[in-house]
């Protein structure tokens, strides 16, 4: 951390305002921050009296907390909010809304992931914001999009993964659908939000006109479903759960090894399949004309997988990997978090970055990707304390010191 100074990166000079919380919207703005954009995140202030919980993005308290941090901040927050500035403002109050208007007036992009209609209720909809900034790009991330009969439903990644189709095809055929132990629906939506924003920026740079980028979580998942829809439309075939293999692609599966572990082998290229079969002493299958193409192998998938599993079951994982590498067959072990730090490829590519927490301790974090040869991104600081940059940013907007103090006293910031 620290190798990428403030003000550098391919998006240096770009101003992004983040409204919202948790995963999809904040992940999108984090990717802008990772590559040099100035990202101001608006968070609700701490509750000083009355009802209500602590302020800030709820993600600050999700998953594993840093035990020595008196604020009890989530380690996830350290990554999700890295390189961002935290400003507190109560969006339900006119003074908080005015702070957002001033920030939006100078912003290139606003990213929000409230329910549709929330910004309009606060007087912060696109029509209101673009009045003072016609070139503004408003990225709106929601469960179902800004229109349609479901627009007002609460939308979470888990529901989007189900509606978009990814849950249906995940798991084993004799068991209920399962989920990845990750917020994949939110992450896919965040990637679509970034792509859409960059396309809108390109158009704005040519036309001077901003626009709305409307990202629905379920649509981001649906966009990943490959040929599932045309297969059903043309042939009435519903792609089902297949466990560890890949429908119609043979061989591509997970196989047991002698030492109780598993090896993933992708031998579905025609020439790769031949090398794989020779490597496991199955020249008969390598030379079988029907198996020379994927179309033939798809009809005999169980036979091919059984032959590979019979061989891997006689090999310790390390030995099986060595044979596959020698035969130039794509293969790998299944990594957990415990495997990344010692892996030479992760080390060579610099995929483990390090940051310093508020108490001075070190924290390993994922490095920024993708890698750009001339203008790389990087981690400049970990997720900030709640409201850490409020005074600085408001002063840049023209608020006087006594005005900032008054807003704080009234609980606006």
Describe what this molecule looks like in 3D.
- This protein is α/β, with parallel strands linked by helices.
- The protein has two domains: 15-223 and 348-409, Crotonobetainyl-coa:carnitine coa-transferase, domain 1 (Rossmann fold, 3-Layer(aba) Sandwich), CATH 3.40.50; 252-256 and 262-333, 2-Layer Sandwich (formyl-coa transferase, domain 3), CATH 3.30.1540.
- It is 37% helix and 13% strand.
- It has 18 helices and eleven strands.
- The chain has helices spanning 24-34, 75-80, 94-106, 118-121, 126-130, 157-164, 184-207, 217-222, 228-235, 270-279, 283-286, 294-298, 301-312, 317-326, 337-340, 344-348, 390-396, 401-409, and strands at 15-19, 38-43, 84-88, 109-112, 137-142, 212-216, 252-256, 262-266, 331-333, 352-356, 362-366.
- Strands 3-2-1-4-5-6 form a six-stranded parallel β-sheet, with helices on both faces.
- Helix 1 packs across helix 7 (184-207).
- The longest helix is centred in the middle third of the chain and has 24 residues, at 184-207.
- The two termini are 30 Å apart.
Essential attributes:
2 domains, formyl-coa transferase, domain 3, 413 residues, six-stranded parallel β-sheet, 18 helices, three-stranded antiparallel β-sheet, Rossmann fold, 37% helix
Tally the helices: what do you get? 18
Strand order of the largest sheet: 3-2-1-4-5-6
Mean pLDDT: 95
Structural class: alpha/beta
Q: Hey, roughly how much beta strand do the residues contain?
A: 5-15%
CATH architecture of the largest domain: 3-Layer(aba) Sandwich
Tell me the domain tally. 2
Oligomer: single chain
**CATH top level assignment of the largest domain:** Alpha Beta
If you consult CATH, what is the topology of the largest domain? Rossmann fold
Rg value: 25 Å
The outline comes out as elongated
Number of DSSP E strands: 11
């Amino acid at each position: 951390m620290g190798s990428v100074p403030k003000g550098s990166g391919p998006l240096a000079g770009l101003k992004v305002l983040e409204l919202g919380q948790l995963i999809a919207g904040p992940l999108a703005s984090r990717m802008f921050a990772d590559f040099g954009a100035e990202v101001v995140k608006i968070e609700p202030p701490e509750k000083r009296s009355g009802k209500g919980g602590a302020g800030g993005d709820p993600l600050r308290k999700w998953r594993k907390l840093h035990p020595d941090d008196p604020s009890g901040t989530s380690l996830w927050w350290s990554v999700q909010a890295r390189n961002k500035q935290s400003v507190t403002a109560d969006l339900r109050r006119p003074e908080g809304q005015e702070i957002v208007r001033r920030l939006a007036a100078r912003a290139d992009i606003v990213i929000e992931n409230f329910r549709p209609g929330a910004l309009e209720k606060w007087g912060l909809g696109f029509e209101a914001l673009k009045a003072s900034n016609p070139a503004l790009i408003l990225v709106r991330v929601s469960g179902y999009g800004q229109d349609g009969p479901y627009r007002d439903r609460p939308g979470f990644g888990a529901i989007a993964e189900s509606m978009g189709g990814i849950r249906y095809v995940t798991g084993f055929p004799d068991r209920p659908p399962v989920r990845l132990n990750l917020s994949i629906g939110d992450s896919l939506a965040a990637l679509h939000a970034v792509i859409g924003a960059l396309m809108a920026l390109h158009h704005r740079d040519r036309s001077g006109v901003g626009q709305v980028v409307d990202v629905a979580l379920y649509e981001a998942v649906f966009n990943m479903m490959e040929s599932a829809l045309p297969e059903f439309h043309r042939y009435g075939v519903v792609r089902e759960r297949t466990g560890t293999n890949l429908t119609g692609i043979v061989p591509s599966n997970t196989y047991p090894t002698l030492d109780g572990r598993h090896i993933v082998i992708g031998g579905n290229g025609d020439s790769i399949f031949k090398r794989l079969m020779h490597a496991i002493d199955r020249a008969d299958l390598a030379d079988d004309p029907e198996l020379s193409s994927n179309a033939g192998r798809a009809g005999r998938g169980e036979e091919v997988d059984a032959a590979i599993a019979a061989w891997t079951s006689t090999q310790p994982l390390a030995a099986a990997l060595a044979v596959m590498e020698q035969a130039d067959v794509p293969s790998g072990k299944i990594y957990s978090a415990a495997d990344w730090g010692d892996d030479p490829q992760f080390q060579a590519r610099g995929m483990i970055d390090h940051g310093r927490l508020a108490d001075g301790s070190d924290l390993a974090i994922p490095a920024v990707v993708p890698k750009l040869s001339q203008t790389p991104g990087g981690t400049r600081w970990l997720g900030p304390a709640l409201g850490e940059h409020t005074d600085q940013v408001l002063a840049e907007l023209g608020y006087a010191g006594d005005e900032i103090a008054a807003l704080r006293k009234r609980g606006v910031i």
